[in-house]
Amino acid sequence: MRPHDNRAWLLILPALTLLGLVGALPLLAVINYGFHDIFTLQDVYWVGLQWFTDILQSDRFLASLGRSLLFSTLALAIQVPLGISVALLLLSYGKRAVWGLMLVALPLVVPWNMIPMFWLGLIDAKTGLLGPGLAAVGFDWKFTGWHTWTLILAVDTWHWLGLVVVLAYAGLSAIPPAYMQAAAIDGASRWAVFRFIQLPKIAGALAIVFLLRFVDSFMIYTEAFAINAGGPSDATRFLSLELGEEIKGFSYGQAAARATLYFLIVLAVVWAFVAATREREA
Amino acid sequence: MRHLGVVVLATFILLPLVQAILLSFTATLPQDGSAQGAIGLMNYRSVLATPELRAAMVNSFIYVSLNVALCIALGLPTAYALARYRFTGDRHFLMAILVFRVTPPVVLSLPIFILFSQFGLVNSPVGIALVHCLFNLPVAIWILESFIRAVPREFDETAYLDGHSGPSFFFRHLVPQIAPGIGVAAFFCFIFSWVEVVFARILTVTGGKPITMAIQAMFSFRTDVGMVMAMTCLSLVPGVAMIWFVRNHLARGFTLRA
């Protein structure tokens, strides 16, 4: 058992100070801006809850919220099971799995703004490796909504699958061989081994995967904007794209109110998730 | 069946990269000395001949190294405290760093810009290095904490009995013991920082642009796609090298404790 010692705070203080400066302080500022109309930094008027009521009552906001939630759900539903399957697949290769890990980690080091460019190059109808084939089967990501969705989901999966695989593999490879041997003696099925031994052991790693993937997909901007800028006819207009428009349009007060709302939504989901995880552990 | 899965996976991951590498060796715009569609090193030559792009590589190196150094330096004592002691508010602290890690950067971009411009940190790699700690410091703390926790307590106690003071124990015993953990933490901080664009964009208005923003600036009415891809492929080299260095320790990852 770890001893109780409040002097440990001294060790934490430097990290806490830095996080306060680049995290807590700007967060308080953004919440404050949300209650003001900002023309310039010297020209600021109190507007109370007006921005918040405006945003919450607009149909566009609710539609974007729905789209972003759907996108996150789909991204998680695809990437988490796929990532676990790939991790299990790699595990069966023993020592050679390290090559697979390096392979899936590659997309993680590509600059974010270039990821959509890679894919647009790949599916370019004239010069792309996949372009002519996709054009022949009528894949039209510019003007057909669900084709754009498919493309963005594929790009997002390509980008982030490595993180899921690496963390799931880390959890799986830490399981002592004795567990597996015991299961083999009991004649446990492949599914039973996964459900009752492997899954509980990687729950901690999966929790962080779930949260990171939820937040990043919920606030997806770079890929979605570069691929179709919210189109066709708003089919991929996610929450972050609306915020981007307001910042570009210099309506800072409204943008801050919107940012605060997004933060609160993310916070609510994270809190619910952590509470659920703790309850399961208890 | 098993091998088929690996082949499908490798194709999916490698196809976009292969496409980019092919384009980077192709003259996509007619240039002096090479016709459009010609194959060769001309894009790489033009990238290395452009002063802004060379400066961008230097900027990226400076801010990423600074960020990794900060995260490890501040993360180590924090991780040690969390792994070895209980104290009032430790769970709240873990929750707080989780919240910082999941705060969308776009939410904070505006006040960060205003705050940093008052301290003269805009257009400088130092500003980016500091703000990237927002999401990298929590990751570094999680990873280092799990590695320190794996070292038995007796290890600390023996060192103290041998007469080592706090700092001397830390640097001469604990740090070598968890060196792989420091490598993995540095790797994750590196990749999250190297590829980030939201803060990098807002904090580099006129100068100090890192690679990501220098590539962005190459897009114009007549974009030289080949050159863009050449620059991108060059930007992948340090990342791939990092993957190679930590390959045997990658599978230690990090888990959620809140």
Describe it for me?
The complex is a heterodimer of chains A (282) and B (258). Chain A has a single domain, classed as MetI-like (MetI-like fold), CATH 1.10.3720.10. Chain A is built from 13 helices and 2 strands; from the N terminus they run αββαααααααααααα. Chain A has helices at 8-33, 50-57, 59-91, 97-105, 115-122, 131-136, 145-173, 177-186, 190-201, 203-218, 222-228, 239-248, 252-281; strands at residues 36-40, 43-46. In chain A, a hairpin with a 2-residue loop joins strand 1 (36-40) and strand 2. The longest helix of chain A has 33 residues, at 59-91. The two termini of chain A are 18 Å apart. The model of chain A has no long low-confidence stretch (mean pLDDT 83). Chain B is mainly α. Chain B has one domain (51-252): MetI-like (MetI-like fold, Orthogonal Bundle), CATH 1.10.3720. Helices cover 73% and strands 0% of the residues of chain B. Chain B has helices spanning 2-24, 42-49, 51-84, 90-102, 105-118, 125-149, 153-161, 166-177, 179-194, 198-203, 211-217, 225-245. Chains A and B meet through helix 1, helix 4, helix 5, helix 7 and helix 10 of A and helix 1, helix 3, helix 4, helix 5 and helix 6 of B.
